[in-house]
Amino acid sequence: MGRMIRYVRLLKTPNIFPNSLFTTRSVIYRMKSSDSGDRIIDVNKIRNFSIVAHVDHGKSTLADRLLEITGVIKPGAEHAQILDNLQVERERGITVKAVTASLNYTLNNEQYLLNLIDTPGHVDFSNEVVRSVAACQGVILLVDANEGIQAQTVAVHSLAKKNNLVIIPTLNKVDLPRANPDKVKAQLKSVFNIDPETVMSISAKKGWGVKELLEAVIQRIPPPQVNNDEHFRAHIIDTWHDKFRGVLCLAYIHSGKVKVGQSVRWKSDPKQHSVKYLALLRPKEEPIEEATAGQVVMVGCGPKGGGNVGDQLLALESSENADVSSIPPVRHMVYAGIFPADQSQHPLLSDAIKKLALNDSAVSVKNDTSPALGQGWRVGFLGLLHLDVFTQRLLQEYKAEAILTAPSVPYKVKVQGSKAIKKYKGEEVIITNPLLLPEAQNIAEYYEPFVIGTIITPVEYIGTVTTLCIDRRGTPLPSSAVDESMTMLQFILPLSEVVIDFHDTLKSITSGFASFDYQDHGFHPSALVRLDILLNGVLVEELSTIVHVSRLEYNARRLTEKLKEMIPRQMVQVAIQAVVAGKVFARETIKAYRKDVTAKLYGGDVTRRKKLLKQQAEGKKKMRSVANIKIPRNTFIDVLKR
């Protein structure tokens, strides 16, 4: 996109959104483009919206059809899932990153700028959805006409309501033989009190009804509420690294305007920067000279320009007390250690983690050390899938191979008097690494994180699902019927019982029909202990875990049995022990390979035989150390899976 010329004028048109307070002043800018010529778009012709739904309900497919209708891509199977541009997304068939595309569409001879954000559906990437809706005025709530309402559907609807967004309920996959639109509309009425007359019906795969949905977006979703009389102010909803241009940011502009060459500053850093790059994402970059309030644009301030998700980009004249809506802080559910396969690769892995953490703002990174693995990092994630995808992206995008330690959830302890931990006396301390847990005599009380789990399941599986939740130390909450065949159950569950394999087990016992989502319920008192793993009497710090006392013996047996299967047989006998405060709760033994050193003897004095056996015994004694025991790199994450 070429040069941009800005105009300001007062519109005398009536307010078409009587329930909202929209300004009648609009900012109009003229854009010159090689493909569409001159066009004038004002703020009242901008629509910012997201597509939100449960996993596999067709968000990315719908995004493809919208790109086709607006002329961004040509119809064809080779363009399937065009916004899922990461290799891990195409391999797994899921959306990991929320992606923005600015689209042009003409309705009733009026040209509109539509900023579309395609969001993930899995709960482990819910932070992407939270960041996306912060830049939107409405959402398309997509529901599979075959499956009906799922657990994540409830979560994203609640998020949209919390942010006061306009919701366009839409049924997808209505072309399939099993589709039952009337039943799903009844579910929407029962659970969300949505009028069935307002529900759109489409087939994203075949394109049925997508054009009508796009027009409904223009008619139902209001334009952004902006104030162009104020100085430039924007908040950052995404960042990524470019090897030539440094940090690039996706910004939603709340007020004022910004143009290439303008001096700006970050709210977190008063240092002055110059805007060097400005572009619309269509979804490929289309450079522009100027952007105004209400738009979602890419901004770059050069290799040293900086920028973080949640920060604000301001004009130099902006006051410090002015503020805009901010993104809530991330609550990490799982922590794991990441170490280089070889310490010589530490600089490469460090650079890769920094760049990937810039693109994935949901992770937290702190330096960590391990006697067995050397220098590394303690990284916080939103779930086990998030952890798995992060390490896969490290390997695919940066060729950085990493070793993972066993994942654990954060705990909280209240510390009582001790000279060694005097600075924490009487305080509540968050423990993300089991090795940092103080001695039991220094802890007044343990606190465990809990979540409220929402499960939508067919009625015939209610008993099985309830048994599973009770077995995982769950406490039932009141349930409600979705319709005559589906029920929504809620349980208060320990986070440690949920993040590892709860979802897989739930799918298994319900033949894949149940769906699960959870939200934070805070820390609550619990009876906890630290379970250590010893190999030949030497502590393996990476395998230490914090467990509930009711699960102690079960976890001890499971860990030792799994390690026996996963650790290769060695030249020496390996004793695997699960220990709590010096007491052994489970033990397994891996027998050593044995070489018959006396095979070459064919008689003679017995002392020769004894001498050879003694030498063999002394040699094996020297080998009995953890450094000589080969532990497969996948052991640390696989060992906690049931």
From TrEMBL:
The principal location of this protein is mitochondrion
Give the way it sits in the membrane. Peripheral membrane protein
Q: Which domain of life is it from?
A: Eukaryota
Q: Does the keyword Flavoprotein apply?
A: no
Look up keyword Mitochondrion and say if it applies.
yes
What catalytic activity is recorded? GTP + H2O = GDP + phosphate + H(+)
Record-annotated residues binding GTP?
Answer: 53-60, 118-122, 172-175
What biological function has been recorded for the protein in this entry? Promotes mitochondrial protein synthesis. May act as a fidelity factor of the translation reaction, by catalyzing a one-codon backward translocation of tRNAs on improperly translocated ribosomes. Binds to mitochondrial ribosomes in a GTP-dependent manner.
Q: What family does the database annotate?
A: Belongs to the TRAFAC class translation factor GTPase superfamily. Classic translation factor GTPase family. LepA subfamily. Belongs to the GTP-binding elongation factor family. LepA subfamily.
Official protein name in the record: Translation factor GUF1 homolog, mitochondrial
Question: Which species does the entry assign this protein to?
Answer: Loxostege sticticalis
